[in-house]
Give the backbone structure.
Amino acid sequence: MKTALITGVTGQDGSYLAELLLKRGYRVYGLNRRKALAGMDNLKNVLNNNNFEMVEGDLSEESRLNAIIRDLQPNEIYNLAAQTFVPYSWTNPLYTCNINCLGVLRILEAIRIYSPGSRFYQASSSEIFGKTKEKSQNEMTYHYPRSPYGCSKSFGFNIARNYRESYGLFVCNGILFNHESERRGLEFVTRKITHTLAEIELGLSEKLILGNLNARRDWGYAPDYVKAMWMIMHHKKPDDYIVSTGEDHTIRDFAELAFKAVGIDIRWEGEGLNEKGLAGNKVLVEVSKKYYRPAEVDILKGNASKARKILGWKPETTFEEMIKRMVEHDVDLLKRSNGEN
């Protein structure tokens, strides 16, 4: 039986990956910090599986990581743990880099010394490209990150590639563009939209407050992207791959499709009222500078032609389908939490 170690197992991607690997007959170990209680709901489908086990550890703890990798000797290690919230990376850049930079290096060193036969997947991010001048980004696009988070992910990408080339380890990078799902954290703008919309639908909130509506992103569905991770790790040659849809949409587009899914019209802040001075049945969406980034990334759109050609991977879920699933999930979630059928 193959074994896999997943860091960040309680997160969106980690939980979907655990489910995928268990279905494929793996024994899965999930790394979890002592204080990390959030996300356990994401694992409700795997916690009772006899082939799933949580192990306690943290990317900041070198000795603990060494012991885990030495003792488990996993066939595959997926590093999905990170400080992933871009705005927080300006608030606490040192912590962000300790986890996203040195955490990757600690795992790579543990593999090099104690388990050189393990295959390693590093979760990279489209934020490494930042202020790019290219209309779409590929594996060779220059890195110009615009946040401490983006800088930290660029380091993780490059140190992983360096260990592959320096030590002959089976090390891969998946440069995943934005991907969402029902399990996305509430702090992220996409889930903030769908969850607040659910509150509006149920009369629990009156408006949605957003930042830059014109930022354009390439959004895909997380379960599709997790399949790409496994395919990257199972190609005969370790390499780096863009994982994306090749389409870009604005935050405004996302919000409009979400509201459309439940038949609610949006009144954007500053939009005129009707002749009676009322907004009719439209719900207000307010824009606040509070949610703007210090250095904005205007557009990110991936070119996943390499993954399509070499791995045979392609996204299965459309932008509209993804949003509809997220909205329906959040409406149902709030109904159940409020005792509604």
